[in-house]
């Protein structure tokens, strides 16, 4: 109820009217009926008007709607299963890297605890590298740089001034993953749940970048689709604007049927990682795939809400069915 009241207070009514108009046009239904249904779905399923649009809620019957993961339900899961005292292990990427180092399989440096000489030694080994803020989100301020050891002193100060205090080795992705979008490291968001004894894979999403972006973040224009248990893409990809792509708009690679290499190894790695901080039971792991196998990019203690578009479900249930296998929600 608190989340519902919070959402009501924050409603952008002008945007709600715009979204309802677009949905009514696609659904071939009166706008008044769509507005009424949006309001009812907000109360009944805790689904916001944007998610109503992105998830094609107007295409779903009541039985299906009950199985869709909403932001309200996702927030309840996080509040119930993730201990806030341990958020720091994920909010601070430097602390995350230290805690989960065995799963990273790459060199990294936290400039908050390293000096110019450490950076110089790092650059001697890696002339090209990635820099990012330890508290960054959504791919913001992530850059690919190149430097020589002689640049270390000046670069050290510059990076600290910009808050880009993490320096890490570039992940060279598997050539098959590069077929999707070679400019970015295309990852999976693998959702895990630790039940106190062992970890479980709840679902897996394939993400891919667009244009010249070096990250695949949804908030930065990236695309995503869903994977089955064998790592095969089930549906066309979509983006934050609701556009749908059966092939990648830049690379021309077919998305439906694309198979992620090393998927079983990736699932096994995530299950193991899920037990490291048992106080954080519900995590979304960003996992890249190299020629040698999977590597963890980062973990998300507040996993985003990913659901297949209603038009793809064709009568099948949404993600909550799998969530309820492991969680009491």
TrEMBL record:
UniProt-listed InterPro entries: ATP_grasp_subdomain_1 (IPR013815), RimK-rel_E_lig_ATP-grasp (IPR039523)
Start and end residues of each Alpha-L-glutamate ligase-related protein ATP-grasp domain: 164-305
Superkingdom as given in the UniProt entry: Bacteria
GO molecular function: ATP binding
Gene3D superfamilies named among the record's database cross-references: ATP-grasp fold, A domain (3.30.1490.20)
Protein name as it appears in the record: Sugar-transfer associated ATP-grasp
